[in-house]
């Protein structure tokens, strides 16, 4: 009887040891799989890029048009960008280095020259063929199913901090206008949460805070100089637009400030 009890006890110990090993193996597999999944979901999210070169339908590599930067930006599940002529949006899925981009709506502006038209044609065609990507601090390379490079992007801007020149101002009537006076408007987002610049006539300052894509601006304080009526009209529209700002987005070298409904209030390009 004593021998029988010892044998049963040893069998129970062996069974528990095997079960413990099985649990450790499953736990290890789960812990190694989780980082890989997280990487595939977040590898491109939050990144912004500027087109460096594209491949034409004949297989030739062509440098991007620098006068109208083409951009590409990724959120958690959406992609937005510009061909250098028109803006577009869409969706994407990625798993490690695999990438599929599905283009959605695109604006329908007429491109200003043949080079931009050729670039737009190539960008839209090649984005639809993308099957994989590689990226690092130097850029983003998009490849088709054969592994051939079809689009190459350089790192874009990722935050509002820095100097900007206005390219468009909401006129308060639902339209964003650009005049010869618009380029006189500047904005400098400092590293300490301070905003300063020129409204075209008067210097101004305010405070700002960023949380994700939310942008909160404090009240604008400006000097009191008087300028020509058209200059003052443009400046007043700009200051009024700043009061409405709730979010921002960056595509390539373009910063867009929007209200809570998504309406554009001010657009800028990178200043010097």
Structure explained in plain terms:
By secondary structure, this protein is α+β, with helices and mostly antiparallel strands. The N terminus is likely disordered. The chain has three helices and 19 strands. Strands 10, 11, 12, 13, 14, 15, 16, 17, 18 and 19 form a ten-stranded antiparallel beta sheet that branches. Strands 1, 2, 3, 4, 5, 6, 7, 8 and 9 form a nine-stranded antiparallel beta sheet that branches. A hairpin with a 2-residue loop joins strand 7 and strand 8. It folds into two domains: 108 residues, Lipocalin (Beta Barrel); 109 residues, Beta Barrel (Lipocalin). The termini are far apart.
Structural classification: alpha+beta
Order of H and E elements: HEEEEEEHEEEEEEEEEEHEEE
Q: Please state the average pLDDT score.
A: 85
- Percent of residues in beta strands? 35-45%
CATH architectural label of the largest domain: Beta Barrel
Give a short account of the largest sheet: 10 strands, antiparallel
Radius of gyration: 27 Å
Total domain count:
2
Q: Count of DSSP E strands?
A: 19
Shape: elongated
* Number of H- or I-type helical stretches: 3
What is the CATH T-level topology of the largest domain? Answer: Lipocalin
Unreliable sequence segments: 1-42
CATH class of the largest domain: Mainly Beta
Share in helix = 25-40%
Report how far apart the termini are: 92 Å
